[in-house]
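Progress narrative, work stream C.
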Amino acid sequence: QTDVDLALTLACDNGRIALTISDCMLNFNKLTLQLQKQSEVNWIRQLLTDFVSFTLRHILKGQICAEIHKMSNLLSDFTLEQAGAFLSDGEVSTSVELTGDPTITSEYVESWHKGNVFL
């Protein structure tokens, strides 16, 4: 089992949604390395196994949290682009931009937008 806990902040950045992840807690309940060859010196093998497992956990955590951050920003950009495309017809198109930082509560997300029409 893997647990992920994210602290997210949404802000307005030049009319786009800027999502920052200030804290990314990723917990692997079980990530172990098993060596195939049995050796005479079990304590050295266990030390090596523990060290490599610990290192892998931290490397994976950094990479997974970075990818979550990147994908969150791509998804927010895609959402705004799709909202603009939804409101277009032929040669008439629109753009939808944020006018301020979104408000997030436990029950809803509130955001204010500005739309431009291009002919």
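Work stream C, second folded protein:
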Amino acid sequence: VTEGCITAMDLSWHPEHFQCYGCLVQFSGSMTYREKDGQPYCDHCYTDTVLPKCGGCKEPITDRALKALDKQWHVKCFVCMECKKTFEGSEQFYCVEGQPICGPCAGEEDD
């Protein structure tokens, strides 16, 4: 019984069973899906449940990111928690309560 089936992810599906793993919406011909761990996701659920969240704004990361303090960050969100300056051009930062802080705000003295 393969008549009327959908082929996706190297499998054959009854149309009513090819649905988003997150919200269970049935995929129509015009919808796209993304695969994670062998499961299909609609774009919305993929963004909400699969993509890593930024350590700063908590929004999904869909573009360039950096990893620091055991978190992933949007480049624009990785800023000093006090003065909000970026760390561009600087190779060091400090950590206070799991958040980045620059040397001057951490009380570092200039030599």
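The beta strands are 6-8, 11-13, 34-36, 39-41, 65-68, 71-74, 94-96, 99-101. No further action is required on this item.
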